[in-house]
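Box 3.1 — From sequence to structure: Thymidine kinase
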Amino acid sequence: MAKLYFYYSSMNAGKSTTLLQSSFNYQERGMETMLFTALLDDRFGVGKVASRIGLEAEAHTFDDKTDIYQAVTNELKRRKLNCVLIDEAQFLTRDQVFQLASICDRIGIPVLTYGIRTDFQAELFEGSKHLLAIADELRELKTICKCGSKATMNLRTDDKGNVIKEGAQTEVGGNERYVVLCRKHFMELAFS
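Predicted structure (token representation):
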């Protein structure tokens, strides 16, 4: 039986790198993959999964209106698929998460999703919430806080390094906008 996987972490834990390595592993064995990334994340160009260490690959994009199940079934008319990989999975909708489960259950293709668990206010993203609820396997990717402890939280900052405590849940950015911290240091800064 094909499974739905959710690889989650704070920012800067290597989710995109791991996704690209997984896709490469399939391709190296002569298998076909289909990659997706969020349309709103255009830091490295639209339709690109890119890692901070310089790896990248072209990908299909999704927004809240994309029917991923239909996109995969359309792609299957052109070629065989052995795996579907989703970057920025936190931006999936509830319906899209259930579409991914249907890709596993009805079509028999494993789906590997990669995303951030919580936002800068320690709230679950919609996609992450539903993946945590129904994924067959949950795998945490780890990175470290400035103190050396496991980082699990994302702190948003402005261009001067000041902590941002309010605002829209989604603001695309990297090291210039976010700092990864352990819960203790996050709580000290975000809720002080």
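Summary of the box: The longest strand covers residues 4-9.
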